[in-house]
Design brief:
alpha+beta; about 40% helix; about 400 residues; disordered N terminus; Rossmann fold
Amino acid sequence: MKIKPYNTIRYILFLIFWISNLNLASAQNFAANDDREARIYTIYNVEVDETSRNVTTARDRAIQKGQRAALERLFRRIIRISDRENLPSFTDQEIQEFISGFEINDERRSSVRYIASLIVHFNRTKINEVLSFYKIPFAETLGTAVSVLPVLEEAGALMLWEKNNKWREAWQQYDVINNLVPIDTPMPTLKNKMYISALQAKNGDTNSIEAYIRENTLNDLIIATATVRKNTATDELVLDIQLDRNNPTLEEENTTKRLSVRMPAYDENGISNIDALYLAGVDEATDWVDDLWKSKVLVNYDFASKINARGTIGKMEDWVVIQRQLGKVNLVRNVNLKSISINNVDLEIEFAGAPEQLALSLAQQGLMLEPGTENEAWTIGLNELAVIESRD
């Protein structure tokens, strides 16, 4: 059989590439991947403000309190609401052991006051160990973006796109960088106003909602309707929230959730707490949104699974992309390269959780994982997301 020179050269280059990368790919442990740990186990924008007898003491106290607040935010991100009560109280020393480093931004100080914004990096292994010890499952996969329409009912009037809708302003000002699910709050553009009104959103008008989702190319839409009332008996402000999920592709998962947030009507300076109430309401609502996603990707790291997967590679660079994207998925513990040829790669993937959870997490990184027929390996390959990223 005569082999074309082009194919011969291509095959030789492929062998060189394969041999040079075999040790990297075979029995590769992805648990030490810095990029994916940084995305999940780093908490940003922790604001601290402390006053003491001198600035040194104020700084020490501020950083200590900031690190505790960051740990609480991390647990909020990766643990379900119902599981947080199972966490113990940690001492300051124990919290230090969870932290791998921190950064200080926007530092300001006087002789007795210290103000700063912290970025706190946590040790994934230490966090995993303590959660496994207390048998608390957790999620490490970032979710797909959700869009929120904040409808405010006030004094019998409904507001959505209006300038004085403080509920919408609270959503737009809320820092979602530490949430598991990215949140998008649309701007009051003429196009958005044309497709849906406050009344249509509150009443769940199917035609308007579907048109709005279609025209904005949304995956998930949540209508957040809020009403403020005052409890005169306790002198508290109460924010009642109704969250209605609208997912056109997963209609069986559409649900309604009702929440109530309350706080004193005025702060210690006699100023209304209404703005703080709205922000607290957004915090509660986004916590629920995160929980919806966690229910799909939540795993217990006490258990490990293995599957065999075969990937088709159109060119040598495809294998490099597959390796890189696998390395970004926290569920993946280890990948063994069993064999490789010009057109195919055979892998053994060790991971935590169920295969369906792994497939969902891989999809977030541009990889398709589909079950094979009986007694056959799963199929792994690149989807459009990974192809686009490989060009960057």
